[in-house]
Queue: 2 jobs
Job 1
Amino acid sequence: MSVPEVAFAIVAVVGSIAAIRMVTTKNVVHGALYLVVTLGTVGAVYLILAAEFVAWVQIVIYVGAIVVLLLFSLMLTKAPIGRAALDNQQRGLAAIVALGALIGLIVLIQGAFSDVEGTVRPTPTEAVGTQLFKHFVLPFEVVSILLLAALIGAIALARRDEP
Amino acid sequence: MIHLWLPLTFSAVLFTVGIYGVLARRNAVMVLMSIELMLNAVNVNLVAFSQILHDNLLNGQIFALFVITVAAAEIGIGLAIVILIYRNRETVNVDEINLLKW
């Protein structure tokens, strides 16, 4: 195994363990903090794959904004503690479905891509920006309208009605 | 050199953990967190294919950026709905919200 592969394996194991802890923890706030670890390791994976702009966007938007939003809504809603309060009765069935999907995906991946490898080339932010504003201008504008609509919708949903 | 199956396997693990979380958790905020996990798994796939197979147009990375943006919009609306439900029903457990269930 090469050096990037060893680094990747360490980061991936940490991220996977944090993800499993997130869905099995008894305390929702701990779950949100495990989510921070998982999202951070995904950012590190992007850095190992030499996609620096996506890595920083991941850190800023996910760890910086979305986790704060999730923590706020955990504080605003009553968060019970304990597995019985947090899990429903389908836990065994859900574990079977997830394990089956994992085994199927790993068999597929090993069958199709087990001998594909390549060196990663660093992509500077400039290249991503040029590509984004050269070939993806229309989707970019559509996504900005979508964000505006989501912003207005969230405000309209969450504000209290005037008496 | 990085083998392509390494990031793909990490992504598969994240996705299936997300499936388990969506199916097994009762708290609506935890369900939304698990959905974020699944979207992240898709992004890892996109960036891995783009970088290891040398996508000169960088389509994979730009799609990952769009997915992150749509995920941010989705979590904003989702949490607004969760807070609204909590205000009306005093609960965010998805198995107790059955008003529209036939």
Note: The helical segments of chain A are 3-24, 28-48, 52-76, 83-86, 91-113, 125-135, 137-158.
Job 2
Amino acid sequence: MNKKAFNLKDFLINYGVILIIIILVAFTGIKSPNFLSQSNLMNLLLNMSARLVIALGIAGCVITAGCDLSAGRIIGLGGCLAGILLQKADYSGRFIQGGKPMNVILAAIVVMLVCACFGAVTGSFIAFLSVPPFISTLAMMEIVYGLNLIVTNATPLGGYVTAYTNLASGRFLMIPYLVWIAILIAAISWFIFNMTRHGKYMYAIGANPQAAEVAGVPVKLTMVMIYAKAAAFYGLAGFMLGAKSGGASVNLGLGYEMEAIAACTIGGVSVTGGRGKVSSAIIGVAVFEFLKAALQFLGVNANAQWIALGIIIYIAISLDIRKYVAKK
Amino acid sequence: MLGQIMEQAGIPILIGMVCLYFAYRVLILKDIKAIRGKDKPDPEDKEGYCRDIGRLLVFFGLGSFLMGILETVHPMAALIQTVVWVVVTFILWKRVDNKYF
């Protein structure tokens, strides 16, 4: 048997960031027992749920060596759209006067479909017009932001039906519905990544797009589908965030794309493409959320927390690029 | 006043700055990898490609600034301008790509 010898250096490069954060979490747990209390863990799970859905969407783009900077704005659009569809009929500030609120599940589907259309357009820009992902998604970010401003008139939405807000407060087997939604999306993503042809194409494009094209992979169609699927997930995340906060505005989800890309990278989704699993996104999001909470519990200045998060992102991406260079 | 402008037009201004930064890298530093990534091959006429793509990035960046200004005056006009600007830029991008590859 040819067992691979344990290499401490490789281990630290692969799991160093996660290790540091686990130590930080353990330290915080000892220093402040409330940190590991059931209510705080449940709160963390709730915070993680929407972010996991975003990270799973972005993971698909990152695996193809792309990125999606429009995620935050599409989340805002999803949240506002869900808000418009699910305001109480008798709410004085109702966006659409008259009419009845939509069924919650139907509203979620409508939000996902609308957002998927924007993702499909972004994917088409990338696939058919050869525009780099960061430029295409920046453009879509602008378009969606402008559209959202016009649709909502920059007015915050509120007065949601109870069935919608219950998604955040209601529980099944002691676990909030939002967490169940995130688990369902993670399971669907796992199935897509591992059991479908689309998933295999995704990894092939990320590893080497030219080779994938020569091998008969429908690169353009796959790219469109990846970005459409990602945008549908962002829409759902916006829907979930709206339920959690009981309101939405155009600024909902602002900056979440950076957090999601960072979480994916920390978890092990390679920014150079071709590598990454659903578990990577889950680990990344969990680590990132625990880190944020730990910094809060340790009483770190709110502004300084951004610096700490920035350093973690920098280290994670540097290590990832180092792995890529070493592999080459 | 400045805070209000940044709140309304911060995103387009930021995007404009990003585009101009990349235009600088392509036009002045001739850094094609900044746009095409590390794995894709360079075109034969590197100078020409840098010039054309750089100009497009400047065009797109200026469009973004224009959106920022329009947004404070008339959001609908800003949206229409952005959509038209994006479509024109990306079609031109495809043309440049076809020309050099």
Note: Chain A has a mean pLDDT of 86.
